[in-house]
Amino acid sequence: MDFERLPTSAFVRAIRQLFLLVVMGLSSFSNAGGTIDFSLSDDTARLAVDAAKLGSGLHLAVALQHDQDHGDIASLAAHVVDVRDNRRQLYLGVGGNIYAVRADNDEQGIAVGVGGFFRYAFDSLKDLSLAGYGYYVPPVVSFGDIKNLYDVDLRLQYHLIPTARVYLGYRDTAVAFEKLSDRSNIGSGFHFGIKLDF
After folding, report:
1. CATH value at residue 13
2. Whole-model pTM over 0.85
């Protein structure tokens, strides 16, 4: 698909359709359950759905992020996680993330990142945890107008009830485009959210 010739409205429609298809696929995939993660700031909304395959260690996630001033990002991630003991304080997932990006200046592209996520539960404060993710996309796997990309998020979470956490976080998503000298920050900044287990 030639992202340099794809109209913005067609790009957004294609991403929405892909997002809905993947979410429907995840609902049938999630034998071990999953999470719905929704976060907001003044300018940005992000929705993510993930699921784990029972006993396999395979973890899939799809996310859609809208920044009213800077553009949109859709992503599809696959990770492997340690399933030996889910009572550990540290929970890790390692894998990759495919990004589809449309910036407000009509720069567009696809990028493939490597990285992972973590969650650390404090021993003395059982309901409090530190969580985050990080991915880097080098130029060799950046396509369309994208030169490279990095995406990191760090959050402090609190368990309201066993199946719901609220959090305050900081996200930094920066995309370097071939024709622009400065990086574009899409959805970067402080945000608050809720994460629901199912």
Report:
1. 2.40.160
2. no
Residue 99's identity, in one-letter code, is: Y
Q: Which domain holds residue 144?
A: 8-197
Q: Number of folded domains in the chain?
A: 1
Strands 142-144 and 164-177: unpaired
Q: Is residue 47 part of a domain?
A: yes
Phi, psi dihedrals of residue 3, rounded to the nearest 5°: -70, -20
Does residue 27 form part of some domain? yes
At 144-173, the pLDDT tens digits run: 999 999 999 999 999 999 899 999 999 999
Domain presence at residue 3: no
20-68 per-position pLDDT tens digit: 655 555 555 545 678 899 999 999 999 999 887 766 778 889 999 999 9
Q: Which residues contact 130 (CB under 8 A, 6 or more apart)?
A: 119, 120, 122, 154, 155, 156, 157
**2, part of any domain:** no
